[in-house]
Structures are given as C-alpha cells and as structure tokens.
Write the structure tokens for this entry.
Amino acid sequence: MNTKTVPFTSEQLEAIIAQYPTPFHIYDEEGIVDNMKRFISAFSWNKGFKQYFAVKATPNPYIMRLLQNLGVGADCSSLAELMLCEKVGITGHDIMFTSNDTPYVEYKKALELGSIINLDDITHIEYLEKNHGSLPDTFCVRYNPGSLKEGGNTIIGIPEEAKYGMTRDQVFEAYKILQDKGVKHFGIHTMVVSNELDVEGLVGTAEICFNLAVDIKKELGITVDFIDLGGGVGVAYKPEQTPVDFEVLSKRVHEVYDSILVANGLNNVALAYECGRMVTGPFGYLVSTAIHKKDIYRHYIGLDSCMADLMRPALYGSYHHITVMGKENAPKDHVYDVTGSLCENNDKFAIQRELPKIDMGDRIIIHDTGAHGHSMGFNYNGKLRSAELLLHKDGSVTQIRRAETYDDLFSTLDFSNL
Ligand SMILES: Cc1ncc(COP(=O)(O)O)c(C=O)c1O
C-alpha cells in the first residue's frame, strides 16, 4: 500500500500556477534526493557500487545535476543524452552508453567523453574499429539470455523476441575478440524486466549476470570488473501496490552475490544499476486544470493537458493516480473518463475512474509522471510541450524548462518560400 499525496498545499499550488500556468510537470526535489540516497546507501556493502541515472526518463540538466551531486552517473542511449551530460559536466566512466543500432556519430561522442560503451552487438566491435581506429580499454557487453524459465515482463517483452544484446555464444566470442584487441576491463549487462515491483524478479537479473560472470571466468579466464544490472526497478503507480524495498532488494542481491560470485572466487565485482523510472517517476506530478465537462454516453472531464504531456496511459494502458486538489477527502462518487484534447480517442488519462465531483477550474494532479512523462512528449496536433518545474524543500520553485511557444513549434518551417 502507498498513499498518494502531493508535496504542496492548494494555496502553494495556486501561487505556483499564478506564475506558471497549467499544464506543467513539477518534480519534488527532496523526494528524488531522499529516495536516491536510500538506494545508494542500501548497496553500500558493494565496493564500487554505481547508479547511473537512465537519462531517457527525465532528460533535464537540472535533474541530472541534482543526481550528479549525489554521485550518480548517467546511462545514455543517444547523442542528445550524451550532449546533455557534456553540458552538465558528467564525463568519463560516470557515463554508461547503453545504445543499440548506434550510428558512429553517437559512438564518437561517447568515446570523446570517455564513456563506458555497453556493446549491444558483436558486429559493433568491427564497426567501431573501422570508424574510430581504436578501442577504449574498458567495455561492457550486453547479454540477451534468450528464453528464460520465467521470461521478461510486458514492457520489456520476452528476451528471445527483443532486439537488444548478444546471445551467450556471442558474449563469449566478443570477450575473446576484445581481449585479443587489448581491452583490459570488462563488464556484463542485462535487462530482462521493466517496471518490476517483485524483488525476486529483480534478483533474477542478478542471478543471470552472476552465473554468466562465473562461466566467463571458468571458460575464458577473464574476471569481470563490474556487472550492470540495468534498470527495471518498478514504481507503485497504483495505491494498492507496494514500492520496492531497497533494503530487501539489496539484501537478496547480496545473498546471490555471495552464493554465486564469491563462492566462485569473484570477490571484488562492482555492481551497477541504470535505473530511471524509480529515480524520478514517483516524484513528478502533471498539474492540469479541468476546462470542460461533457455528458454523453459517459461523463467526460476535459483537461488543458493531453497525451502529448503524458502518453503512458494511451501507450500502455497504464494507471496514473489522480488527485483533485482540495477534494482529497471528498467521496469518490462520480465516474469519469479524464481526457485531453488530441484527435485520438485514446487520449485519456483515466477511464471510468471513480473520483470526487469535478468542477470546472479544479486543479487535477496526475501522479507519478516524473519518468517518461515530459520526456515522451510530442507535438501531434500542434500541441506545445509543457514547462518543467522543480519544487525545493523550502517550497520555492525553479522553472527548469520553459513551456514551448508557437515560435518553437514552427521554427523548422520556412514560410518565406511559400
Ligand atoms: C538499457 C536500459 N537501461 C536502463 C533503463 C532504465 O530502466 P528503468 O527506467 O526501468 O529503471 C532502460 C529503460 O528503458 C533501458 O532500456
């Protein structure tokens, strides 16, 4: 169980809205920092433990800086994310570059910044050498375990059908090739679950990687320096769900670390995570205003935001909790579809949701939008992407990204040649 509250009062929110009109995403700085500190501290038993923030979740330099100050690195998957790291001053092995189908221009930037390359495919060794002329002395290799006893989950799918990573044979082959070419330091990565709340599901990833590390040592004589367990730590989007207990996760990972790695003479393997969702997800709120009420075969509440601000419900049918400000304790005696204005019938934040009676002008808070909310935004129907605000512990707010304007939207069009 987790109670879905908001980190501001109605009065505070109105003061914020007076300065920054709805819709906007607002992130709770204290929540992000405390949560991350708890995660890092839970894994302090592992020397060299590193959390790399999956930038794709919330690609905002202020969020990245906040995390950088806690010793968190960045997990990047694209050139734009690498460029953000450069701007923030995140460089070297503080960047894990976990990309796929990667053009050389992206590898080039990653190598210039000194990132660890998390290699998605064996053919990319030759591709990198041919284009770059040399290889760095550290590589991580992404493993796709193929068929699993209990495989994947709905977001990530079945590993066998996923485009990511290398087969077991290819991982061994890649290690041999890389070693022959002078690579000195090795890591292993896999990611077979996403948005996983079950600790044992997450521990499964560790077991897969740890067993592989042991086999690599036995068969190739290579001791991996680090194991990157990917992301996948879930968010309790629904009130009846329970967030992952980091202490319990860490304890279980420690147990399998000892029973698999240490038992086979691998005593000093550093662990890494590339979590994104759980870092910012629960600490972001999409703040909107109810602007229309429509009663046909169903009762609709129309907001001034739309799925361009948060596409998870439309994309995955995801649940996002809704709070009607000032009506937190009112009876949920109305049933609404809560919609945006896109010409898409799946532009609905909630379907047949029991909520208090909503009046026009009510502030509608959509919870857990801190990851894959603003970042998945798009401009269909000419919708402008919203602002992002950072709420500080003392109640003050910094705008960390302004809202788009129509000039931004049309900036790639040249009307002068019409
Ligand atoms: C390779 C990789 N690493 C890390 C992440 C972050 O995962 P999460 O946000 O579930 O923690 C993802 C998510 O898409 C990913 O694909």
About this structure: Residues 7 and 37 are 19 Å apart (CA to CA). The mean pLDDT is 96. The pocket of pyridoxal-5'-phosphate is lined by residues 54, 57, 75, 98, 191, 194, 230-233, 274-277 (CB under 6 Å).
